[in-house]
């Protein structure tokens, strides 16, 4: 038997997450290859460009290696909500920019975005406190408090804090031993995955954090949302070219989009793949599967 | 893909984290590529049935229950996804047109193998075990010590035998008086 060395499979940690500037360039390349993706991708191109402006100017305050190690050893992510620090002016700018871009490309949503864009009035400090809600996974509570559409609010929160968290992830990545982590939530920020890749050479599944774009390995035959590993309830649907898989959990009714890197020569950027695979999201939703736990509470806009 | 505006809004009401599914304008132009959900694949973890290493396998089966893929299990600590060529071919255990479906028998002095029925083969094996055992059974050894054994029959188990099967095999072979008992201990 050919014994695989541990580091062959597990230590392929890339210099990721990559910066928004690079994501924008990659997305542009992909649009050029597949023009049919242009229309659905353009808003994200604009969002990447806005995020890139913040990302180049943001330097996260360092965290003590000892506290990070202690947290990770107890199963907590390296970054706890109280650690998150950023200039509220930067957050404000990006918050409004995300709302403006979204309203420009999704005119139907403009009326709902207008009050979100103005929130929280002159109290910019509340944007920082919103990050705490967001990192605790309680954005829906804040949405309820403010009266905003929960998922639209979540979208703005996510895209506003994404570049800040990407910077944190890049800073914290060297402190994280992904081989010993092996949990379904992100070791950097505790976020859930919303995309994954089956990596070369042996198909180990690496999850992509929905918040900070950090990638880490996790069990392939288990739903990362509910732990279901019953083969009769956790199935996948392959794309016709075998490049993508849509994993569907019949226990929690959630889905995960996966790219099989073994089928590719090139090394794609997963945050870009997340966007150009929107048809998979639509297909999963049509079958009644959701990405968030609160999917059942979704409402019509 | 044709989706009505209402269906679209219903589908896109939820942003999935970083994503918001496309504008109604885009959908009106029906430019969204289709991802058909026509074939669900089931994946189950198992162990390679060949040698004693016990490599982890992932077996994928289609809606009809037939194996469509077999590959190493990257989460199995024994092999972490790597497989030798024989393990990679494990799918042929169920699908190869060359696999044996009946026992083969080659009579003493014969050149050719012939297919036989299981009933015949099992009965024949039982008859020959009994005949050999009866002819070679030793109640005592040269020192007069009780041994109740036969040295004319040996038992060799396979790598795929699990603990429970091995237990039964040892019960049977010890009862027959066999002393040459071995198998490829594994799972």
What do you see in this structure?
The complex is a heterodimer of chains A (301) and B (187). Chain A is of the alpha+beta class and 301 residues long. Chain A folds into 2 domains: 17-175, no CATH class; 178-296, FdhE-like domain (FdhE-like fold, Alpha-Beta Complex). Chain A has 12 helices and 6 strands. Chain A has a 6-stranded mixed sheet. In chain A, a hairpin with a 6-residue loop joins strand 1 and strand 2 (205-209). The model of chain A is unreliable at 1-12 and 294-301 (pLDDT under 50). Chain B is 29% helix and 22% strand. The relative contact order of chain B is 0.09. The radius of gyration of chain B is 29 Å and the shape is elongated. Chain B has 4 domains: 1-35, no CATH class; 42-95, Phosphorylase Kinase, domain 1 (2-Layer Sandwich), CATH 3.30.200.210; 101-130, no CATH class; 137-187, no CATH class. In chain B, strands 1-2-3 form a 3-stranded antiparallel sheet, with no helix packed on it. Chain B has a 3-stranded mixed sheet with strand order 6-7-8. By secondary structure, chain B is α+β, with helices and mostly antiparallel strands. Residues 1-15 and 22-26 of chain B have low confidence and may be disordered. At the A-B interface, helix 1, helix 3, helix 9, strand 4 and strand 5 of A face helix 1, helix 2 and strand 1 of B. Strand 4 of chain A pairs antiparallel with strand 1 of chain B.
């Amino acid at each position: 038997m050919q014994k695989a060395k541990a580091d062959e499979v597990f230590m392929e940690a890339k210099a990721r997450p990559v910066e928004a500037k690079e994501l924008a360039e990659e997305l542009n390349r992909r649009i050029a290859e597949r023009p049919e993706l242009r229309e659905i991708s353009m808003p994200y191109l604009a969002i990447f460009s806005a995020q890139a402006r913040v990302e180049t100017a943001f330097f996260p305050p360092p965290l003590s290696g000892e506290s990070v190690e202690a947290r990770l050893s107890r199963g907590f992510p390296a970054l706890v909500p109280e650690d998150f620090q950023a200039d509220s002016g930067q957050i404000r700018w990006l918050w409004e920019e995300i709302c403006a871009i979204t309203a420009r490309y999704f005119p139907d949503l403009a009326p709902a975005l207008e009050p979100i864009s103005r929130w929280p009035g002159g109290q910019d400090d509340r944007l920082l406190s919103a990050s705490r809600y967001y990192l605790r996974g309680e954005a829906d509570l804040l949405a309820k408090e403010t009266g905003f559409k929960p998922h639209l609010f979540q979208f703005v929160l996510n895209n506003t804090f994404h570049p800040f968290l990407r910077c944190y992830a890049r800073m914290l990545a060297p402190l994280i031993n992904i081989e010993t982590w092996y949990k379904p939530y992100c070791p950097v920020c505790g976020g859930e995955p919303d995309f994954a890749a089956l990596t070369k050479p042996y198909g180990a599944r690496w999850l992509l954090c929905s918040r900070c774009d950090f990638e880490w390995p996790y069990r392939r035959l288990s739903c990362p949302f509910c732990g279901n590993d019953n083969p009769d309830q956790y199935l996948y649907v392959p794309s016709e070219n075998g490049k993508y898989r849509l994993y569907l959990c019949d226990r929690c009714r959630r889905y995960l989009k996966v790219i099989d890197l073994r089928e590719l020569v090139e090394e794609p950027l997963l945050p870009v793949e997340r966007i150009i695979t929107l048809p998979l999201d639509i297909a999963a939703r049509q079958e009644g599967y959701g990405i968030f736990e609160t999917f059942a509470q979704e409402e019509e806009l | 893909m044709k989706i009505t505006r209402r269906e679209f809004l219903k589908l896109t009401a939820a942003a999935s984290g970083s994503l918001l599914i496309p504008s109604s304008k885009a959908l009106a132009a029906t430019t969204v590529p289709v991802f058909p959900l026509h074939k669900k694949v089931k994946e189950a973890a198992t162990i390679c049935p060949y040698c004693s290493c016990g490599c982890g396998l992932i077996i994928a089966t289609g809606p009809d229950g037939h194996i469509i893929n077999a590959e190493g299990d990257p989460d199995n600590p024994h092999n972490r996804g790597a497989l030798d060529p024989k393990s990679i071919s494990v799918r042929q255990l169920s699908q190869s047109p060359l696999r044996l479906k009946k026992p083969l028998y080659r009579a003493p002095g014969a050149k050719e193998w012939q297919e036989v029925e299981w009933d015949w083969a099992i009965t024949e094996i039982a008859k020959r075990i009994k005949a050999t055992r009866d002819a070679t059974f030793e109640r005592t050894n040269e020192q007069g010590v009780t041994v109740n054994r036969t040295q004319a029959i040996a038992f060799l188990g396979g790598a795929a035998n699990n603990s429970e099967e091995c237990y039964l095999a040892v019960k049977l072979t010890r009862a027959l008086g066999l002393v040459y008992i071995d198998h490829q201990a594994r799972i």
